[in-house]
Design a protein that fits this description.
This protein folds into 2 domains: 133 residues, 3-Layer(aba) Sandwich (Rossmann fold), CATH 3.40.50.1370; 158 residues, Rossmann fold, CATH 3.40.50. It is 43% helix and 14% strand.
Length: 309
Amino acid sequence: MKKDLLSIKDLNQEDIEYIFALAEGFKSGVGGFEKPLSGKSIGLIFQKPSNRTRVSFEVGIFQLGGNSIYLGFDDIKLGARESIKDIARVHSRYLNGIIARTFSHKDTALLAKYSDTPIINGLSDLFHPCQALSDIFTLKEKFGKLSSVTLSYVGDGNNVLHSLMYASALVGMDLKFSTPEEYGPREEIVEDVKKIAEATKSHIACYKTPEEAVKNADAVYADVWVSMGQEEEHKKRVDDFQGYQVNDELLSKAKKGAVLMHCLPAHRGEEVTASVLDGPASIVIDQAENRLHVQKAILVIYIGGKRKR
């Protein structure tokens, strides 16, 4: 039976540990696999253009022996020129798996519903599981463990925060976040996450101010205020997010030695200052690199058939 990765909610703690173990092997060069995707073709159906997601997946597929086929917005016009149902059913006959990067999570879910081959969510408006898994992997790499780590997220309650909340709850890590009132994460996701957190003793909490959220944090996470597709809202969002910039003053309220995270692309002078993003606390390039290793693990598991025993 094929298995999809649409959200981190599709995983449990054991699944995440297995992904991380494989990623560590790939990063160290002792993954233990020859070419697990040899003879396999993976489609990248991208409604949104991409830098890190596209390059890291294409390089990962190549290194694992597979073939990648990029299908941008104008190549397919997902759901416009042809129904998502038909696209999923047809490409299932050609491809061994699909990486989907969509504006609407409903489109990714529809692809998964009608595809006979695995669908991996490369980003949707609701979730960004590969990014969050890479982020948590990076924190484990930096701190050695996750159970005593506190992550602070400051900014928009978007797909990245949704996925970070699920990931933190599943691995037993604490997450504190602060967003402008009208830009908070979806309430139903927060409630769902808290149920998971009860079982793992994770603490997921919202704070009124960035200063409260950042206090005593081991890592501070910034993300763009204006995501792709929201360009018309730029001026309003920049005004609404005043006070939520991650700068030297805000970072100083975190623990001594705290690290700065950002999934990139970053806009220096908006959600984060250049002095912080380019400073010694920044681990954003490590995050970006780890997309490659974590996604290779995901590819091997979901498309290469390397399931844990």
